[in-house]
Amino acid sequence: MLLALASFGASAATPPAIEGTVDRILIEKAARRMTLYTGDRRVRTYVISLGGGGLAAKARRGDRRTPEGDYRITGRNPNSRFHLSLRIGYPTPAQVAAARAKGIDPGGDIMIHGLPNGRGALAALYQGRDWTDGCIAVTDPEIEEVWKLVRDGARVRITP
Known about the structure:
Elements: H1 2-5, E1 22-28, E2 33-38, E3 41-47, E4 69-77, E5 85-88, H2 93-101, E6 111-113, H3 123-126, E7 136-137, H4 140-149, E8 150-159
């Protein structure tokens, strides 16, 4: 599996420092698992929550599904309405073109993020449930760790 992987592309007010050693993220939707890699070395694995629209790939804005494909981390938001967020570069130009050909809006704003601000103490109520609008969610302490470890531009593969 690692051979296939090699080819793919604090608080919100005071975000943790960025160490940036992780260059790849594998998100396995069916397993509800996100694994961080530096090269071929597994760094951390997390249990995740996904979009509440089911396991099918994101098709359009508002379907509450998590996309599938190869992306990059394209930005960070320390002032997100969720406890820290890392932007995933969805949709790709090819996904935009495919959606336009169908006359639909592919959506956007797909993030890896923590819990809604002020709800960190309720993590047990969120874990094991798919509740996002298409994003990938972890607990607040976990997103702080992810924020520190993942470098900007890291590759992200989201699989079914």
